[in-house]
Amino acid sequence: MCDVCGCGNHGNTMVVSDDSARKTVEVKKSLLDENERVAEVNRKHFDEKGVLAINLISSPGSGKTTLLEKTIEALKGEFKIGVLEGDIETERDAERVRAKGAYAVQLTTGGACHLEAPLVHKGFHALEKQMDGGAPDILFIENVGNLVCPSSFYLGEHVRVVLVSVPEGPDKPAKYPKAFKTSDVFIITKADLLPYFDFDVEKVKEEALSLNPNLRIFVLSAKTGEGMEEWLNYLRELKKG
Ligand SMILES: Nc1nc2c(ncn2[C@@H]2O[C@H](COP(=O)(O)OP(=O)(O)OP(=O)(O)O)[C@@H](O)[C@H]2O)c(=O)[nH]1
Ligand SMILES: [Mg+2]
């Protein structure tokens, strides 16, 4: 899966000598330290330009791009919106959000299952170029679909959002705690599908809050528009500061 953080390279029964285990830990640590350093540069850059940066993380197909499409449609008259689209391959998500009126740059990782700060740094400069030197009021960073690795890589964002869609099931907060512990916002998506799945919204909220009591939670459907206004108002409030 990912040869950057090594997440896909451990077998369940892999045995390593103390020395190679130590080296692996050292390499991972220096990789994370370098990511953190560039993420702080990104954050400074965003702050200087008045950009609100939001990092979206979820499993593949939870509805990140669909939520962005609807958010762009609703807010493009109020804010300049930029998107950095993280995927392993294809320009598809960038094309989708551009079609709704956002500036967008596709970041293809070519195999890595998460975005890292240096690629976001490059992508942000490409976005500025696309905007003739301007900057977006709101920058959405759609991470690669994965509920594990993106939680370990700070990109310089102001707000981290974790999404879980109703069909994925109610057990995700407990199974993927880091994504919830490191996020500011939790969105339950595809709420229009609640009648067809065993998904107790109150229980899921409770479980997520037990991991992180500061989570702001939204339950919405990008398809029907249910719950969208609360999310849009939250973004408007964040921009007011
Ligand atoms: N019923 C329903 N379907 C939705 C909703 N939001 C998204 N979908 C569908 O879910 C599928 C995946 O949506 P995407 O927005 O592409 O998901 P994603 O998280 O961006 O996927 P990746 O970028 O591959 O990780 C599509 O078929 C969407 O039409 C929703 O609110 N309700
Ligand atoms: Mg997408």
UniProtKB/TrEMBL annotation:
<comment type="similarity">
    <text>Belongs to the SIMIBI class G3E GTPase family. HypB/HupM subfamily.</text>
</comment>
<keyword id="KW-0342">GTP-binding</keyword>
<protein>
    <submittedName>
        <fullName>Hydrogenase nickel incorporation protein HypB</fullName>
    </submittedName>
</protein>
<dbReference type="InterPro" id="IPR027417">
    <property type="entry name" value="P-loop_NTPase"/>
</dbReference>
<keyword id="KW-0862">Zinc</keyword>
<keyword id="KW-0378">Hydrolase</keyword>
<dbReference type="GO" id="GO:0005525">
    <property type="term" value="F:GTP binding"/>
</dbReference>
<feature type="domain" description="CobW/HypB/UreG nucleotide-binding">
    <location>
        <begin position="54"/>
        <end position="217"/>
    </location>
</feature>
<dbReference type="InterPro" id="IPR004392">
    <property type="entry name" value="Hyd_mat_HypB"/>
</dbReference>
<keyword id="KW-0479">Metal-binding</keyword>
<dbReference type="GO" id="GO:0003924">
    <property type="term" value="F:GTPase activity"/>
</dbReference>
<dbReference type="InterPro" id="IPR003495">
    <property type="entry name" value="CobW/HypB/UreG_nucleotide-bd"/>
</dbReference>
<keyword id="KW-0533">Nickel</keyword>
<dbReference type="GO" id="GO:0051604">
    <property type="term" value="P:protein maturation"/>
</dbReference>
<dbReference type="GO" id="GO:0008270">
    <property type="term" value="F:zinc ion binding"/>
</dbReference>
<dbReference type="GO" id="GO:0016151">
    <property type="term" value="F:nickel cation binding"/>
</dbReference>
<keyword id="KW-0547">Nucleotide-binding</keyword>
<dbReference type="Pfam" id="PF02492">
    <property type="entry name" value="cobW"/>
</dbReference>
